[in-house]
Every structure is written in C-alpha cells, then in structure tokens.
C-alpha cells in the first residue's frame, strides 16, 4: 500500500481531509483514529502532527505526506516538495516594537524568537546577520513584552494579532508558505501509485478552479461566443433542432464565470448554465 502522512490537527488538517475525500479516498470519522486503511485504493493514511510529517517522510518510513512548506523547510528533513495544494497560505515575517529596528541588517546582536528556528537561522545566515534565535512553540507575539527577545518571526495572515500586541511587521517576507505534498528525494519505489495520487489531487484542484458552462447561441455568432469560452482544448459545439442555433459546452474559470455569462447574454446567447465539476483528469 501507499503510505501517506496526513496532518492530524491545526489549520492543515480539515482542508487536507476535504481534498482527499474529494479525490475519492476514505477519511477518518473519529479524530482519535491515528491510522486508516483505504483498501479499495490501496492506501494507508497515518494522522500525525504536521510538524513531524517531514521527518517521517524524509526518513523513508512513509512514502509521501501533506504538510506546510514552512514546516518542511524548518524540519531540515531529507524530503522535497512535489506539489502545491493551494490552501493554508501564510507568510513568515519579522515583527518588533515600532521605532526600534526596521530591517534584517540591523538584527546583529539581538535575539529573535520564533516557532521556525531552522528557517529563521538560515535566513539570518543568508543575510550575514549574527543574532540569537530562541525557539518557542506558540504565542510568539508575547516574547518581546516578556523580555525574551527584541524581534519575533511569526506566521502572518492578516497581521491583526501582531498589531493587537503592539508590534509592526518589518522587512521583506522570510517565506511564503502553503500546503504541499512531499516525498523523499530519489524514492521511486511506489512511483506508479504516487503519480496516481498526484493526478487525483490535481483533478480536485482543476475541479475547484473551473465550472462547466453550457449555452445556446445563433450559429452566425458562434465564433464570437467561442472567443469568450475557448475552454482548455476547444469547446464542444453541437447543432440544435432549431436550425441556425447551436449548443456550446466549455470549461471556464470559476472566478470569471459571472462576467462571461453577462458577455454571452449581451452577445445573444440564451439558456446559459453553469455546473460544478466534481473531478477532472486533464
């Protein structure tokens, strides 16, 4: 069986389970369940702490895993990113009290508190900065107030938590992160099953980004209509019983669907419908 590590909690857990379910895999119903066998798909899921997943995959104990790019890089494990999953986006940034330091080059001799000590230490080294790095498991924003550090490096989504703590973000982002699929470099022992797994996830990503659009249009306007809905390869155009009219079917990006429907209607198309896509293979 293909052995896959999945986050058991945190911001990665539920979106990962939802994506795997959409890809046709069984998922646990009880959060206390640590191992689940999906015999129909020849897959065994192991529910682990997100921070530990890269270690298990990098050691070769598990074939692939779903984790965050930040956790992968911070672990130092011998594992590599092989697919982006498009959820759990975040940014690792420096922050401090206003009016103190303003850029990384000024951190020399200071202490930086973070939950991502590995990433931060490498980032400081890359910038030639000698600073102490203190590892904290959580509530990093309080480190300055409590005198543990002068600067923190923390995951930022909106920045509200840092502002509420009286801190301001400084410098460029350290790291842009999101959920990713990882594997051990050079491991091809389960290549066929890994590629099938990746195709399924890619199918979910496509299904989330597109809708199927159907509409009727006068045959003399079909070229203009098709220019609005070119599809991935080309749209399907079928003659209707009413001569002079055709039915068109095409995939369109979900974020553009309403605008395209308006433009098609103005062009003369009617019976314009959109349908969600549950799975895809391209």
Précis, in short:
28% of the residues lie in helices and 32% in strands.
Q: What is the topology, as strand order, of the major beta sheet?
A: 2-3-1-4-11-5
**General shape:** globular
| Mean pLDDT reading | 94
Order of helices and strands: EHEEHEHEEEHEEHEEHEHEEHE
Instruction: Give the helix proportion (percent range).
Output: 25-40%
Distance between the termini: 25 Å
**If you compute it from the alpha carbons, what radius of gyration comes out, rounded to the nearest whole angstrom?**
25 Å
Largest sheet: 6 strands, mixed
Q: Tell me the fraction of residues in β-strands, as a range.
A: 25-35%
In total, the number of strands is 15
> Helices and strands: which structural class?
alpha/beta
Point out poorly predicted stretches: none
Number of helices: 8
Tell me about this structure.
This protein is α/β, with parallel strands linked by helices and 282 residues long. The protein has 8 helices and 15 strands. A 6-stranded mixed beta sheet has the order 2-3-1-4-11-5, with helices on both faces. A 5-stranded mixed beta sheet has the order 8-7-9-6-10. Helix 3 (69-75) packs across helix 4.
């Amino acid at each position: 069986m293909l052995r896959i590590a999945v986050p058991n909690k945190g911001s990665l857990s539920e979106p990962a389970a939802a994506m795997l379910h959409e890809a046709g895999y069984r998922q646990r119903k009880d959060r206390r369940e640590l191992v689940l066998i999906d015999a129909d798909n020849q897959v065994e899921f192991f529910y682990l702490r997100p921070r530990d997943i890269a270690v298990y995959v990098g050691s070769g104990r598990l074939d692939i895993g779903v984790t965050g790019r930040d956790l992968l890089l911070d672990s130092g494990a011998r594992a590599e990113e092989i697919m982006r999953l498009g959820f759990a986006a975040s940014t690792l940034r420096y922050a401090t009290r206003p009016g103190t330091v303003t850029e990384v080059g000024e951190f020399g001799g200071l202490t930086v508190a973070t939950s991502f000590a590995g990433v931060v230490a490498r980032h400081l080294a890359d910038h030639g900065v000698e600073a102490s790095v203190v590892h904290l498991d959580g509530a990093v924003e309080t480190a300055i107030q409590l005198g543990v550090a002068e600067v923190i490096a923390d995951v930022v989504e909106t920045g509200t938590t840092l502002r509420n703590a009286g801190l301001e973000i400084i410098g460029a982002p350290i790291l842009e992160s999101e959920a990713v699929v990882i594997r051990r470099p050079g491991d091809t022992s389960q290549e066929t099953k890994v590629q099938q797994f990746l195709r399924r996830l890619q199918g979910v990503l496509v299904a989330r980004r597109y809708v199927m659009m159907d509409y009727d249009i006068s045959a003399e306007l079909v070229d203009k209509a098709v220019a609005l809905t070119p599809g991935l390869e080309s749209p399907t155009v079928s003659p209707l019983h009413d001569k002079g009219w055709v039915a068109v079917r095409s995939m369109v990006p979900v974020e553009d669907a309403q605008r395209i429907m308006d433009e098609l209607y103005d062009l003369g198309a009617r019976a314009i419908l959109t349908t969600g896509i549950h799975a895809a293979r391209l």
